[in-house]
Amino acid sequence: MIKSKQLKDYEFEIDYFNGNCVVGYLKYEVTFDVVNIVDVFVDENFRRQGIATELFVFLFESVNPDRFMLEVNVNNFKAIKLYEKFGFVTIHVRKKYYKDGDALIMELKNNKDVYILAIESSCDETSVSIVKNGVVDVSTTVNSQIDVHKKYGGVVPEVASRMHLENITFVLDETLSKANMRLEDMDAFACTYAPGLLGSLLVGLETTKTLSLIYNKPFIKVNHMMGHIYANNIGSNMNYPLLALIVSGGHTDLIYMEDETTIKYIGQTLDDAVGECFDKVARIVDLPYPGGPNVEKLALNGNPTYLMPNLLSDGSTNFSFSGIKSHVVNLAHNEKQRGNEINKEDLCRSFQDAVTKSLVDKTLLALNKTGAKNLVMAGGVASNSFIRESIRKMCEENNINFSVPDKKYCTDNATMISAAAYVLYKNNKFAGLDTNAKSHELLTL
Ligand code: KG4
Ligand code: ZN
Question: Which ligand is closest in space to the CA of residue 298?
Fold first, then answer.
């Protein structure tokens, strides 16, 4: 017979009885979401009868924490074998902990569903999302400040941070109520801490750290660009090794990932980011902020009649867009001076074609260089249909498995931040409450 009893507020014992006698027991402590197994004992005369296994099975049926932890002498081979049978893995070695050897710290992660609430506030979107197990979007709210910043032709940092502050609690409440969940139900809290506008980042960061402190749940810091990549995990997991093409307002990067935590830069823009150029071209042809989607719309009705410069065809896997940007500025200026009307549709189409060609060529070069058979695309510019389809076509022609997120997950959102946070959660990469915001940072996990 097996029975459980409570020893203290947080301490429990499972006893194995032979008649009225306890011949084996398992003691454990519950600390928040972790169950620490502090002692396992079976009487010498009752060993090799599967009693320890029964005690563990009883434990697994009694509690449902995030993880189980235990400590074992490295020389206790039988016990280690049993723990490994249950799926425990060694995560740390405490040197010379016992008189006769080291102690292994072993961990077993529970397979329960993990809900992470994430906040994104690095630029002009206040977004909160709850994602289950890093792949299921349970609830997401994106509050865009575009209408306010439009008046100024771009994001005004001071206005953005003030608006994040005004909106954050409403966006948080809306996300929770759509999910029909409470803050207590979350397993961790995550947010973007870099790169981005400092004042804006701080609103999300301080809110998240406060939630983590109040609800005693881990805090996870996420690099915004990593979030963009992990938007590709929403719905179904990415395949590795992969090449990631990131195209956003501030970045144009080619990243090689051997597995989910190994990052290697293959190429970067040497000057402007592709999104930034779309926004500049939009301004030249008097389109409102944000320019990218409006340039795409005009390009739909245009022909590539304007000659564009070759974009860094130097055989490298880096990009350069400042040349084409200056070219478009000069072209518009010269035409105006000559009193000629510029054909906006044609100009947008010519620009979009040239930029797309560069993205396609360099990505193919990087695929060949790395040998990666999987390509993921990410970032705000990845919502451009012409670019998406051109990259997809190149992948089909070269037998590359291609993934690009749903358009709503390409531009800034908290769903992607939560998806990236899940990878960090699985790898025990938690952050301290002294974490600060950073305006610039290379891609990190
Ligand atoms: O990823 P994102 O939302 O923010 C950053 O992390 O930068 O990207 C925003 C950028 C802007 O430059 C915007 O003009 C561009 O993505 N963008 C587009 C399109 N939608 C957004 N560029 C071209 N075509 C689009 N459809
Ligand atoms: Zn972004």
Answer: 1
